Amino acid sequence: MASPLAQFEINKLIHLNVGDFDISFTNSSLAMVLSVVFILTILFFGLKNLKIVPSKIQALVELSYEFISNMIGDNIGKEGLRYLPFIFTLFFFILIGNLVGMMPLSFTWTSHIIVTFAIAFFIFLVATFIAIFKHGLFKFLGFFAPSGVPKPMLLLLVPIEIISYISRPVSLSVRLFANMMAGHTLLKVIGGFVFVLGANSFIIGGALPLAFLVALTGLEIVIAFLQAYVFAILTCLYINDAIHLH
Fold first, then answer.
1. Structural domain that includes position 228
2. Inside any domain, residue 6
3. What is the model's pLDDT at position 198?
4. What's the pLDDT tens digit per position in 180-202?
5. How far is residue 79's CA from residue 243's CA, in Å, rounded to a whole number?
6. Residue 80 belongs to some domain of the structure
7. Residue 148 DSSP SS3
8. What's the CA gap between 56 and 131, in Å, rounded?
9. Are 46 and 60 in contact (CB under 8 A)?
10. 216 Cβ partners below 8 Å, 6+ apart?
């Protein structure tokens, strides 16, 4: 039986090298491309022929837009609507990436820390640049020294605030990576139990684990939505901090 971790192995589909750099097209790259193609397909057909009485796919796109718009309005305010395309793209890229990984013989690119960290670090840079460009460097640095705090306390508080701020991309990326990797590993383990136990006694040994596996798969789909939502809403909060310097 294959290891439960074998599903996370990166396999090169097209070998490409530029100098000393390996830029091969992998199964992870293919999964990302499929995620983008799936999103663009939904948006294309959902916005192709707009009607007053929307079709199912148009209604899905409109509800998605309203959902992200309300999320931004609740967490950032009207100023945050300019970032709606970015948050919308981020949410659905991660969501579809999570769901693509639920398909048989597919690959879950959100289960790799290097990918989730790259996205989280980009968000960290965006939020930092927004804060600096909007308020200036010196006012941004004041974000790490809250007003009204006694000066002796700043010696302890400022390093804590800096570490907390720098750790944002780490916590954001690890949360997504760990949840997706743990969930898919558990599905693989339970799936192996169903096969082995079912071979001996289908009714007792196979049916119950199979029912549990189906329930666990449903839970993993819910987690796929939840993790995309958490990633997007934390991005909103980081941008809100950058705009208002809370």
1. 14-244
2. no
3. 63
4. 998 888 888 877 777 666 666 65
5. 8
6. yes
7. coil
8. 40
9. yes
10. 186, 187, 190
